[in-house]
Amino acid sequence: MNHDHDQPPTIVDLHMTTPRLGQWCPTCKAATGYTADAITLTPSGVTVVGHLTGCEVCDVPDTPETRRAQESRDG
């Protein structure tokens, strides 16, 4: 007999941690990168489920800094 319907629903919240700034970006050749963790909060605890990385310059579309970084990368 299956009693799954007797169990309360599992509540899961997904959150991003505060970004850690100042990571090295090999494209910009500057400390403009960031890293944050994706975590889930469940009744059984906290779990890191992934990571987000990016660059404050490279990941911003169509700015003078982005164009310079792309031009230096493309030669």
Summarize the structure.
This protein is mainly beta. Helices cover 15% and strands 45% of the residues.
Summarize the helix and strand pattern as letters: EEEEH
Contiguous low-pLDDT stretches (5 residues minimum) are none
Counting helices, strands and paired strands, the structural category is mainly beta
Shape: elongated
Relative strand content: over 45%
Question: Helix amount, in percent?
Answer: 10-25%
Q: Determine the N-to-C terminus distance.
A: 67 Å
Radius of gyration: 20 Å
Number of continuous helical runs:
1
Mean pLDDT: 81
Give the beta-strand count. 4
Task: Specify the biggest β-sheet.
Answer: 4 strands, antiparallel
Description:
With 75 residues, the chain is mostly beta strands. The chain is built from 1 helix and 4 strands. Strands 1, 2, 3 and 4 form a 4-stranded antiparallel β-sheet that branches. Strand 2 and strand 3 form a beta hairpin. The longest helix is centred in the C-terminal third of the chain and has 11 residues. The termini are far apart.
Q: Secondary structure elements and their pairing?
A:
Blueprint: E1 13-16, E2 20-25, E3 30-42, E4 45-55, H1 64-74
Antiparallel strand pairs: 1-3, 2-3, 3-4
Features:
15% helix; four-stranded antiparallel beta sheet; mainly beta; 75 residues; single chain
